[in-house]
Amino acid sequence: MSDSKIGSKAAPVRFEGVSKLFGKDVVAVDRIDLDVAAGKLVTLLGPSGCGKTTTLRMIAGLEMASAGRILIGGRDVTRLPATDRDVSMVFQSYALFPHMNVLENVMYGLTFSGFARDEARSRALHGLDLVGLRGFDGRLPSELSGGQQQRVAVARALVLEPQVLLFDEPLSNLDAKLRRQVREDIRAIQQDLGLTVVYVTHDQEEALAVSDEIVVMRNAAIAQIGTPRQLFEAPNDRFVADFIGEANLLACTIVAIDGQTATIDIEGYRHDLPSRGLSEGPATIAVRPSRLRIGDDRGIRATVAKATYVGVRMEYTLTGAFGQVFAVHEDVDAPLAPGAEVRMGFAAKGPVLLHE
Amino acid sequence: MREEPEKTAHPVLIFWILAGWVGFGLLPWYMVEDGLWSFDWLTGGYPFDADVAPALFLIGQGEKLWLAPLLLPLALPLLVLRRAKNDPIYARILILAGALGFGWMIVQGFSIGIRGFSFAWQGALFGDLPIRQFGMGYGAMICASAFLFLLTQGVAARGAINGDVFVVSAIGGVITIVTAFVFFPIARMLFAAFVTEDGAYSVSVFLSKFFDDRLWGIGCFWGARCGAAWNSLALAILVGLITTVLGLCFALVVTRSGFRYKRALRALTVLPIITPPFVIGLALILLFGLSGSVTQFVAEMFGTQPTRWLYGMPGVLIAQTLAFTPIAFLVLIGVVEGVSPSMEEAAQTLRANRWQTFRTVSLPLIRPGLANAFLLGFIESMADFGNPLVLGGNFDVLSTEIFFAIVGAQYDQGRAAVLAMVLLFFTLSAFYAQRAWLGKKSYTTVTGKGDAGMHPLMPTGLSVPVQIIVIGWGLFTIVVYGMIVYGSIVELWGVNNALTLKHYVTAFSVRIEEAGIRWTGAAWDSFWTTISIAAIAAPLTAAVGLITAYLLTRQSFAGKNAFEFGTMLSFAIPGTVIGVSYILAFNVPPIEITGTGVILVVSFIFRNMPVGVRAGIASMSQLDRSLDESSLTLGANSWQTFRRIILPLLRPAILAALVYSFVRAMTAISAVIFLVSAEYDMATSYIIGRVENNDYGLAIAYSTTLIFVMLSAVGLLQFLVGRVQIGRRTELGTGRTS
After folding, report:
1. Contacts of residue A143 in chain B, CB cutoff 8 Å?
2. Same domain, B464 and B538
3. For a Cys staple, B281 with which of A21, A143, B387, B491, CB 3.0–4.6 Å?
4. Residues B352, B265 share a domain
5. With bands split at pLDDT 50, 70 and 90, how would you rate the model's confidence at B439?
6. What are the UniProt keywords, alphabetically (chain A) (predicted)?
7. For position B408, what pLDDT does the model report?
């Protein structure tokens, strides 16, 4: 291996009925099945305490599964400790070793992987190059800014060419501006090298931006798995609809089913949308605020309760017999005044029936 | 590239298999008379002479045939060399071999002693054994370690602690040595309490010794003498109370007053660390003894007759209060400083005045700290041996009674054991109370949220008396320590007050001859022994302490609480009890180390281990766990993580553990006095010997020298640790955060 380019040994990860119990009866992860394809970036998303970090640590081998099997690259690693798994992890706190300089930090894992010193060094330098930290190798971690420390942590994990690279809320210690840049960098490196990445976050926007696939978790179980678009546009249930982006939940009645299309009725307003296997009767739909059309001739009667100008758009709170919804409107030049009576309709695409 | 986990090369396993064979086949199995490191045994008939032969050669010559079964567990592990670690047979064979070997070594070690079979029923069963065996030597020790670590590797291979060999071995190792050198001797001692003169066991013997009037008598209420147990208890309670009050005064002055010399007060906390415990007693004799300066002065002033009032309860009480107040101060300053100022500030904004704030907020918050300081003072007073020995007079306390029971004319092991049990009961109760009751009651956890507030000053009505007490007691302490230095350069105290260096000359003279330096002073022997024993013990203590701290803070395993209790227990075992139990346990095979330097080293390791454990726990809990975890995910195993991440980051803690165990080893007396021998005399026991011969000048000169040696050791530590921390601060200082 004289060529010190960083390659990829990306491998798939598979969970088969994996559970994790802390103590006797605290269930952190409850019988989950999960497939992460090689070379994909998969995000574990969910509110705090949903088991996403525990899931990540089980892939790393820092927690041992209480039941089920974990496979990495087809090999059963369920009982293998972290040391012996070909997985590396970028920690939320970065966990850079404060007594080693940047280069020593990045070389640390390489020296345990059987590389000669020179080879390890050149690989480490190449890794630093990749994250844009050429020339910082002699610094101590305390002499770097937060964003730079973050990139050292990424380089340190990257140079091992792990089968799976894990990120535990890597952006949570960065300010908002840096966050966007670093997450784009991470995504770019992942796609360039074709790495398998499992990424934990509780920020849905971050998840939507970086992921090939998102795993939404709730109460130690998986709520839904899908691409960002699938999750956003076709959430399975209230929880997912509400967690990914904002959603207005409205009660409706399915009055007709025609093949894959259902016709719903709210206060006489009719709308066609995919039936998603539901049958006629009462149902719930989720509508994104941007998919509400205000000011049509026909539609549901509503009253503007609140109107807020936020620069790029108007935000309205509408009330009516259906309850209360939140809507945004692009027209900032002719805003509606609070108290105005309007008709509210749905965009042709966007509203989605929820499975209860 | 990364090794495949199915590897069949096991370097650690091979190492221990080899070690087992080296211990069995190459090194002398039994204790070698002149010590292994003299290498005299190499020319003394090795490998065939039975005294120095390795086990293999003994068996080969048809001797000590009971060692032969060990060949089986030594050979067994060879079978698994080519097997993978996750092969169930690998684990099973290693566990079998380790358990068999270790178990058999224990069985044979205890069954066959100096006089053949140790238990009568064995003789009845197998007939008399004409041959005997001595204490285990290096060969046996290495062989036993090999079996132990084969066992732990087997247990790890079965999946314990995620199959982590280093952690399992460390747990096994610590449990084994703590069992061997703390629990085993204590158990031996407990049994000794039931032994009659002809060697049988009897409860009535125990009862008669237990209900002795010298132990529980209450004669002092009508003019006779009280029992040692009551004396000890009363003394310990008084010392605990007084040191707590004084310690609190000092802590309050330092944190909550405008007192100008706070740094000087803080310096007081170093004193108990560097002072051999009995030195205070000596200084008090110089002041208040029959020919003490104060006594003489008062006698001349008022024409009264000098009395011996100092010898007894008052003297011991004063000496212990002087010696242990700094300890209470040290405990309480942390507690008093730890009370979040915002609590007190909140009280003040809620319209409480300073006195009300102090009474309703500050004081309740430090109450657990007060209880803690009291219990520490109680335990220290109970365990103190030096001061009662020097000042006790007719006032018997448990620790000295134990000593006289075993070294005095009465030589009564059973009585010593009973006394030790009573003493142990008191200190363990205090220790247990401290842990069970106070452990959960600390209000002073630092939260990590910014506490920018200021502690309010004490109310004036409190501040004035507290400052008077502190200044008074501080001056008294300075006078006492001044006396020590002054006393060392006076010809003969109270009789001939001419200044002289003759005591130093007697103790530390050297002559430079052609052959080099000749250490002609009387103290050099014990001085060098002390330095070298302390220097050997210090790194071992630090190592055992830090590994234990690592296990306690970083690993979770079944029985961890018991493990922690066991390792901290030796803190509550008074030195005299350790001393007695060590001579009872280790003057017979299988571990026969009485009279050697080894027993001193071992006693220091286990006496001072809690210091290392505490230092390690304190600094390790400040290291973020994600540092270890990231090292593990980067492919380092737990040993490599320990060595390359944790140890370097713990350098200040290691240094502190090293210096403190060194210094404590030099000042210890209570356990040492039982364990010293003509060949290995320690400084402290030498000084006590001088005191008993009324040779105060030499004793005090030697003590002064020790204090200065240790002061420089502690100073060096402060300097080095200070540098480490400063280095870190500048690193952070140049760090830019953007």
Report:
1. 731, 734-736
2. no
3. B387
4. yes
5. low
6. ATP-binding, Nucleotide-binding, Transport
7. 72
Quick: pLDDT tens for B173-206: 999 999 999 889 988 888 888 877 666 777 777 7
Residue B548 shares a structural domain with residue B428: no
**Distance from CA of residue B365 to its chain's centroid?**
31
- Under 8 Å between Cβ of B416 and B405: yes
User: Which pLDDT band holds residue B67 (cuts at 50, 70, 90)?
Assistant: confident
Does the pLDDT value for residue B123 go beyond 60?
Answer: yes
Whether residue B523 is contained in a domain is answered as: yes
Shared-domain flag, residues B685 and B591: yes
Alpha-carbon span A277 to A265, nearest angstrom? 17
pTM for the full predicted model? 0.79
Asked if B340 and B469 sit in the same domain, the reply is yes
Given B2, B159, B728, which is nearest A86 (Cβ)? B2
Which residue of B159, B633, B732 is in closest CB contact with A87?
B633
- Is the separation of the CB atoms in A264 and A255 below 8 Å? yes
Close Cβ partners of B257 (under 8 Å, ≥ 6 residues apart): B457, B458, B463, B466, B467
A224 and A304 in a single domain? The answer is no
Task: Collect the ranges in chain A with pLDDT lower than 70.
Answer: 1-5
Count of structural domains, chain B: 3
Measure the CA–CA gap between B521 and B527, rounded to whole angstroms. 10
Our CA-based measurement puts residue A57 at a distance from the nearest CA of chain B, in whole angstroms, of 10
pLDDT attached to residue B734: 34
Q: If you count them, how many residues does chain B have?
A: 738
Query: Any idea what the CATH number is for the domain that residue B699 is in?
Result: 1.10.3720.10
8 Å CB contact of A108 and B737 = no
State the pLDDT confidence band at B460, using cuts at 50, 70 and 90. Answer: confident
User: Which residue among A95, A108, A114 sits closest to B1, beta carbon to beta carbon?
Assistant: A114
Residue B240 token pair: 């605990």
The ipTM, to two decimals, is 0.75
Please indicate, yes or no, if residue B612 is contained in any of the structural domains.
Answer: yes
Count CB pairs under 8 A between chains A and B.
101
Position B495 in a domain = no
CB contact under 8 A, B633 and A92: no
How many CB atoms are closer than 10 A to CB A5? 9
Q: Which residues, 6 or more positions from B413, have their beta carbon under 8 angstroms from its beta carbon? A: B192, B195, B405, B406, B584
A140 has a chain B CB within 8 A of its CB: yes
Q: Give the total number of structural domains in chain A.
A: 2
CA dihedral A306, A307, A309, A314 (to 10 degrees): 120
Residue A234's CATH number: 3.40.50.300
Residue that is last in its domain, among B129, B158, B187: B158
Q: What is each CA distance from B548 to B142, B434, B605, B648, in whole angstroms?
A: 21, 21, 13, 17
**Of the residues B101, B132, B158, the one at which a domain ends:** B158
| B434 and B292 in a common domain | yes
Structural domain including B470 reads 230-443+453-482
Q: Would A216 be classed as within a structural domain?
A: yes
Instruction: For CA atoms B231, B237, B239, B242, give the dihedral sign.
Output: negative
CATH code of A331's domain: 2.40.50.140
pLDDT for res B95: 92
Distance of CA B204 to the CA centre of its chain: 34
* Alpha-carbon gap: A213 to the closest alpha carbon of chain B (Å): 24
Q: Are A229 and A338 within one domain?
A: no
Residues A170 and A260 in one domain: no
Q: Do both B251 and B393 map to the same domain?
A: yes
The dihedral built from the CA positions of residue A152, A156, A159 and A162, taken in this order, carries a sign that is negative
Instruction: Please give the C-alpha separations between residue A323 and each of A237, A308, A318, A353, B674, in angstroms, as whole numbers.
Output: 19, 19, 8, 18, 87
Contact (CB, 8 A) for A177 and A19: no
Q: Is residue B566 part of a domain?
A: yes
E strands in B108-183: 112-113, 116-117
- Domain of A299 in residue numbering reads as 246-353
Q: How far apart are CA A133 and CA A131, in angstroms?
A: 6
